[in-house]
Design the sequence.
């Protein structure tokens, strides 16, 4: 297993703390993918939520393909960071 999906708002941040310790003890950081959510606000101020948290890549979820394409196009047109992944609204699994 090398893909972990978490969020800062799960158990008030404990989810990410536990995952961090587990990866330190049982895996190499460059061999795992960690997905997290950024919209949840944990506190006011810097790094309290949103994109103020450090992220290497961004992706989206729960939208229709045409919405994803539109967001990609707008990002490209303005020179913003584009999305590298999408969790579709529905999948075959």
Sequence:
């Amino acid at each position: 297993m090398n893909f972990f999906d978490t969020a800062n708002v799960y158990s008030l941040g404990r989810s990410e703390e536990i995952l961090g310790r587990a990866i330190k003890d049982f895996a190499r950081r460059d061999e795992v993918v960690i997905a997290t959510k950024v919209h949840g606000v944990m506190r006011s101020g810097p790094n309290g939520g949103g994109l103020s948290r450090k992220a290497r890549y961004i992706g989206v979820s729960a939208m229709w393909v045409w919405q994803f394409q539109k967001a990609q196009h707008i990002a490209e047109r303005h020179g913003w960071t584009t999305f590298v992944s999408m969790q579709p609204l529905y999948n075959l699994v």
Notes: The mean pLDDT is 85. The radius of gyration is 15 Å. Strands lie at 3-7, 33-37, 59-61, 85-87.
